[in-house]
Amino acid sequence: MGQAAPLGEDFAFFRPHQFLAREGEPPDGLFHLQEGWACRYRLLGDGRRQITAVYLPGDFCEPYWILGRLPSQPVVALTNVRAARMPCRLPTGAMTDGQKRLWRSLGESCERQASWLVTLGRKTALERLAHLLLELFERMRRAGLAYGQQCALPLTQMDIADLTGLTPVHVNRTLQSMRARGLVELQAKWLRIPDMQALRETAVLTPNEVLA
Questions:
Q1: What does the entry give for GO biological process (predicted)?
Q2: Can you list the domains of the chain with their CATH numbers?
Q3: Residues 174 and 126 sit within 8 Å (Cβ to Cβ)
Q4: Poorest-pLDDT segment among 4-8, 26-30, 32-36, 105-109
Q5: pLDDT classification of 6: cutoffs 50, 70, 90
């Protein structure tokens, strides 16, 4: 897991399993993902991993670094990643469009984390997976990477387990149940949601709850 390979003055490329940032070390910059997926995680002493955030194309990684804080958790690429690199400093003067998107992303990131506290603390396995798949689809749709009712889903069942606090066996059984009920279709790392409203109801979302 080496350093980022620069594509140009303001871009960086990461291979799968390569670190975008390491815990407690100053990051090379603030990354605006253009292509690929990455995640932030916490590794417990016994080897268990909890994924605490997933970054998709269009996301900033990690917005709070601009406040001068060191990464409290490592960030690693899940797929090949191409990202625009920005300096980790607060903007001065009039904000550019990119800086406005950054601050909007910071607020949305906080809202997602608050929503996931409820999901991990109170929801069933079925409700957790419904919430996760809906959120990922909506974020891909907003990035212009959803096609009708489907989008790419490069996560493994182990990744999904580490995101939702479930075992891989439980994830597998729950996904099979969701397929049998016609809630989702998963094939060749693609997700299709035949009935968005049915999946929202399964996730126990409020009518105005925004996932993206």
A1: regulation of DNA-templated transcription
A2: 5-109 (2.60.120.10), 124-202 (1.10.10.10)
A3: yes
A4: 4-8
A5: very low
Residue count of the chain? 212
**Residue 83, beta-bridge partner list:** 12, 33
Q: Side-chain half-sphere of 195: how many Cα atoms within 13 Å? A: 11
pLDDT of res. 2: 42
CA–chain centroid gap for 139, Å, is 9
Both tokens of residue 121? 């603390």
Q: What is the DSSP letter of 94?
A: S
Kind and range of the H or E element at 33? Answer: strand 30-35
- Euclidean distance between CA atoms 27 and 128, whole angstroms: 31
Structure tokens at 200: 């929202």
Is residue 7 helix, strand or coil? strand
* Angle in degrees, 0-180, between the axes of helices 125-142 and 168-180, rounded to the nearest 10: 80
Pair 55, 34: CB distance under 8 Å: no
- Whether the upstream peptide bond of residue 62 has omega within 30° of 0, thus cis, is yes
How far, in Å, CA of 111 to CA of 107, rounded? 6
Alpha-helical (H) ranges within the chain are: 97-122, 125-142, 157-164, 168-180, 196-202
Helix H or strand E segment including 191: strand 190-192
pTM of the model: 0.76
Of 57, 55, 8, 3, residue with least CA distance to 25 = 3
